Amino acid sequence: MKDLFEGIAWLFTEILFIPYDALRSLQDESWALANLMNWIFMIICVAALVYWMLQLKKFNENDEEDRDPKAHSFLG
Predict the structure, then answer these.
(1) Which domain holds residue 9?
(2) pLDDT tens, 8-67?
(3) Where are its TM segments located (predicted)?
(4) How many domains is the chain partitioned into structurally?
(5) Three-state secondary structure along the chain?
């Protein structure tokens, strides 16, 4: 069982983290490139937020929601 967990640890540290090690070595040369994954995640989050807000606006403009205070059982 110990060999299984050591194999998993080896896989992550020696194989799967190679791109992250390369990004870490870039930090002295370019701060923006070293934080490339952070930039990608921020762009994805902003795009998801904009999409969500546009969907909320679309449903709000359709006026499909029952806004009566007793429309939801947890409010009554």
Answers:
(1) 2-62
(2) 999 999 999 998 888 888 888 888 888 888 999 999 999 999 999 999 999 889 887 777
(3) 36-54
(4) 1
(5) CHHHHHHHHHHHHHHHCHHHHHHHHHHHCCHHHHCHHHHHHHHHHHHHHHHHHHHHHHHHHHCCCCCCCCCCHHHC
Question: Whole-structure pTM over 0.85, yes or no?
Answer: no
Cα–Cα distance measured from residue 45 to residue 68, given in angstroms and rounded to the nearest whole number: 33
Give a yes or no: residue 68 inside a domain. no
Whether 54 contacts 67, CB under 8 Å:
no
Given a cut of 60, whether residue 70 has pLDDT beyond it is: yes
Give domain status of residue 14, yes or no: yes
Q: Determine the distance from the C-alpha atom of residue 29 to the mean position of all C-alpha atoms in its chain, rounded to a whole number.
A: 26
Cα separation, 52 vs 44, in Å, equals 12
